[in-house]
């Protein structure tokens, strides 16, 4: 019975860590990464679609993204969506492809990116702690209903805390790595 509580809690914590990793891909570092365009939505025939579903995105150089739409009529729509996004870039269009040259990040912009990273990391830590709280409540309820002994409850709570520490440590390590990547000139 306690094993069910552990596995449920661990599954939830793993999902939080995966979502955290995915969210961090949209934060721009000094290098070009197609994932930064995942949040950019294009109004295409009345439907809001991400750029990566309308075009091929490649990285020909370290700070250049090349967006090649599958439908040439979407070229201007994609360009407009990128311009109005919060990326702070100015795409150029040669009639076939959109070229996005990512400017060097200023020290100020790097610090903003680090703050964003830390904000996302903190919300992920909170999500993990919420999973811990729910698991702890479940264990206490099991003890209250005499399904497990008090010793088993204490052991269960220790085990849940170990899981929590493990996943929060993972979040901290990933955030530190991303921070170093952002601050790298």
UniProtKB/TrEMBL annotation:
Classification via InterPro entries: Ribosome_recyc_fac, Ribosome_recyc_fac_dom, RRF_sf
A biological process term (GO) from this entry: translational termination
DNA-binding keyword on record: no
Pfam families cross-referenced by the UniProt entry: RRF (PF01765)
Domain Ribosome recycling factor, residue spans: 20-183
Domain of life: Bacteria
Coiled-coil zones: 132-166
Gene Ontology MF, one: ribosomal large subunit binding
Localisation per UniProt entry: Cytoplasm
A single Gene Ontology CC term: cytoplasm
Keywords carried by this UniProt record: Coiled coil, Cytoplasm, Protein biosynthesis
Main location per the UniProt record: cytoplasm
Function (record text): Responsible for the release of ribosomes from messenger RNA at the termination of protein biosynthesis. May increase the efficiency of translation by recycling ribosomes from one round of translation to another.
Family: Belongs to the RRF family.
Protein name, per record: Ribosome-recycling factor
Native species: Caldanaerobius fijiensis DSM 17918
Gene name in the database record: frr
